[in-house]
Design a protein that fits this description.
elongated; 353 residues; 73% helix; 2 strands
Amino acid sequence: VEEAGLKTTSFGDKLKLAFKSITSFFSTTKIMMEIITQLKQMVANVTALDSAMVELRKVTEASDAEFDRFLSRAKTKAVELGSTVTDLVNSTADFSRLGFSLKEAEELAQVATIYKNVGDDINSIDDSSSIIVTAMKAFNIEAEDAISIVDKLNKIGNNFAISSGDLGEGLTRAASYMYTAGNTIDQTLAMLTAMTEITQDASASGNALKILAMRLRGAKTEIIDAGESTDGMAESTSKLREDILALTNVTGKGGFDIMFNDDEFKSTYDILKGISEVWNDMSNVNQAALIELIAGKQRGNAVSALLTSMAQAENVLTTSINSAGSAMEEQAIWLDSIEAKTNQFKASFEVLS
């Protein structure tokens, strides 16, 4: 009462002052606790970033000055992209661990971040990084062109009944053999999308596509290693070629040839496209025989779905080929979202820490 300069010491005045003092005390305490919490978070931020930089130094050869410049760029890029600095550094370390230079790994980490931001059904930067690396290695895509992978996945995901995340997951299942079987990444994504729109299972579609390519190439050992049945497979390439020619001969002028000559196969995409052009004219018996021959019983339904959807695959192929710039356009839109603004605030707080 004396400190407040009150001239009265009535019970009411004392009670009011008591409540005011208690409110002030708890308000100040709350502020102090919040300050302590934020200081602890700052320490955690610094510790996490330091750990990430230690891992990067373990797997990358560079001078202290180069690491300092990298960290400075990472802080700026994290805010620009709506990522955390720690995630960006960890992703860079992951790519470095795969043999990429610091410069390439830095660029790839940014591409993986963009894919995580714009891709539907992408749960983490680890998932986006894995998909990008698989596609790069399978189709011999250089680090400087890695953004084209995200362009394709994003554009197709925006225009067809498949998410870019599911499409990427399906691609990781099929990519290892599709390039070997003569397919481009655009053709692979086209078949994968057309199949998945019907099956609604991108992972299963990716596996079916891989087994289809193997059976068309007579890769019996690889099929067994993959844990798949070889029932119904042709005994040799020449027998496979002969059987497909016979089964697709609906005009009496000869059927579809899966090879350019005795030594060179056509791509899986071109084979499926060629067969699809006579598919509806084939008898049910010949259709069933062909499916068992090239897909087996386990993958038959998925391959049948693809054969009836090759017109859609053509649409997807055109979309994929003309997808350049799609990812960055989507990223620009995403940056206006609440999620992006929140992430940018977090990145700024990391930089402050």
